Amino acid sequence: MNFLSDLDFTDKRVLYRVDINSSISDGAIADDTRIQAIVPTLKLMLDAGAKQVVILAHQGRGREKSPKTVLNLHAVRLSELMEQEVIKLDACRGVSIPAEAKLVMLENVRLDDEADEDVSKREAFANELSEYGDVYVNDAFAACHRDHATISALPRIMTDKAAGLLLQKELEALQPLLDGDVEHPFTMIVAGAKIDTKIGVIQQFYDIADHVLLGGGIANTFLAAEGYDVGESLKEEDKMELAREIALEIDKRGKKLHIPDDVICADEISEDAVAIDVPIEDVMGSMKILDIGRKTAKDFARIIKESKAVIWNGPVGLAEISSFRNGSEMIARAMVDCEGKTFVGGGESVGVINSLGISHDSFTHVSTGGGAMLEFLSGEKLPGVEALS
Ligand code: ADP
Ligand code: MG
Prior knowledge:
The protein has helices at 33-37, 39-47, 72-82, 119-130, 149-157, 165-178, 196-204, 216-225, 240-252, 294-305, 326-337, 347-355, 371-377, 383-386, and strands at residues 13-17, 24-25, 28-29, 52-56, 86-88, 103-105, 135-138, 160-163, 186-190, 211-214, 256-258, 262-266, 276-279, 288-292, 309-313, 341-345, 365-366. The strands form four sheets. It has a six-stranded parallel beta sheet, sandwiched between helices. It has a six-stranded parallel beta sheet with strand order 11-10-9-15-16-17. Strands 13-12-14 form a three-stranded antiparallel beta sheet. It has 14 helices and 17 strands. It has 389 residues and is α/β, with parallel strands linked by helices. It has two domains: 4-169, 3-Layer(aba) Sandwich (Rossmann fold), CATH 3.40.50; 180-377, Phosphoglycerate kinase, N-terminal domain (Rossmann fold), CATH 3.40.50.1260. Adenosine-5'-diphosphate binds at residues 192-194, 197, 216-217, 234, 289-290, 313-315, 317-320, 346-349, 370. Adenosine-5'-diphosphate (ADP) binds at residues 192-194, 197, 216-217, 234, 289-290, 313-315, 317-320, 346-349, 370.
């Protein structure tokens, strides 16, 4: 794969795919971390002689134009950070790009055929976009698992292409994990809502991970598979057989699977729900497991601190509500205390770190990708990465 230093930017127009998707509240960007993050790659390309950079990005959900799906605020913020004007266009197709503009931002590509199910529509869109540039650079790791027009179709059309600094950093941080190039004990914390999205990583690391700590909805399914009553907790009935298989495979290799032995329960999911900490045997009836219990959190924290490498994906409880966030906070703090290498990924997990005010520098690597990181660590080829090679 090519990196920035492999490309000749002299007098070139660059098509630059980024992930600056940000939450917008009260008509302002709530957190500009992702916009700040693309500045080094942009500066490097301009310093290397690029004539123009055309920025391709997505924002929000759906294909309807609204204040939450346009990139106007992003362009204003980027202009400030770059100390030069970013010309924002109101469409991403059929536009005429001012030749003298150094920095141009097209409208949210997902408002057009970026993600259309029809492959030929995506290809046609990519073909049109390819006219706007001479070289292609991708820094949108979090979108690399998507077979989208600007992620995979466009780079396949372009001859000169490379990974930007952000994508390079992700790949260089995560590849050693995938290669099993880690010190032991190596601990994985896998939690969150659904087994399906995480199963691949657990399987990929059967022979590498010494400890697999489970929380969230996933842990409930494992608990139910072991015969515990989990009351009305989130669980996946049709995944219980799979859970038993995974437990068996980990056991066979002499590795350790840790499921909670006490849990925080409530009858309802709300800020003022009455939350109680009970041994797992005591869960019944209308109770819902919404976090790991204090004893389990302490055990997990100890294992994490004693590890030489740790990777965490997914909150171990319903972390959006403060009464059910303790387990995830204990994990975040234990990772900070851990002297080994620490990796975090996933929107919600990173959200817990941010809400605690913990700097990302406290970790070896904080991935910008949730789904993309999981797919990469499952050993799957990411369309966006493949298309660059
Ligand atoms: P990530 O985004 O970090 O990859 P997921 O998207 O798989 O993680 O899951 C996160 C979601 O799982 C959160 O919305 C969280 O509230 C939910 N969750 C975690 N534990 C539970 C639980 N015990 N019951 C219900 N929902 C849970
Ligand atoms: Mg999520």
